[in-house]
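TA notes. Do not distribute before section.
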Amino acid sequence: TPLVALATQSGPVCMDSAFIADITYPDGTVVEDNSTISKRWSIQNVGTCTWDDGFSLQPVTGDATKSWVIDEKVYKKVEPGEIIEIELDLDTPSTGGEWGGCWRMQGDNGQYFGTFLCLLVVVE
């Protein structure tokens, strides 16, 4: 029986992002309980399509999916190759321990794409 080769995507894609750096709160940072922190990442549009007001950052895993309190829209146009900073204001829990989550970009068609942007802090 012959094997069927599955098509794999190669080359640039329309919607894609790459993590550049943690600007604030690198993994393992100790933070106070019941406080608001502003997590900021630097990311790059490595796709071939421009991000516009229909694109957003959405929670996908972890504790932070229950408590983030930002307006997540990327309001300006982000051209292919451009590097931007994205910031979330998050309320830390009242209990100690490791806390965080991950987010991904979402296109105006509802499709998630690109790198995961994660936060893992120690709440005391």
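Switch to the second chain here.
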Amino acid sequence: LAVVALLATLAAPSFNEQLARRRLEGVATDLSTDLQFARTQAVDDRDTVQLVTENGGSRYRIVNAANATLKTVDLPAGITATNAVTVTYEQLRGTANAVQITLSNTRTSAQLRLDTNAMGRVSICTISGSLKGYTTCT
């Protein structure tokens, strides 16, 4: 029983780190999907649509040109995005301003960054190679 307790004590920090990284990856995937949703809405509605990070980076909203909220997402506790970033999608071709949004989790040193390019495409990279399976941000 003592050996099991010792192994559990040693494994708990590693498990918590892994869990925090997976939550960060989940939020990055959701944010990437919502950026594509905003782009699609802009083209479908023939209206400018924006994704705006706010509330200290703990929330983002998707709004149209009339400032009507299409979607609001509160990030899980401990996860924050770069605050006060606005990605604007144009209605004609879904083009966007080039923006970088960094996601952090207070429970891990790993960070992910989402980049939008002028064509409105989204890519995810890892800062300093802190997460396997992603390219390192340049």
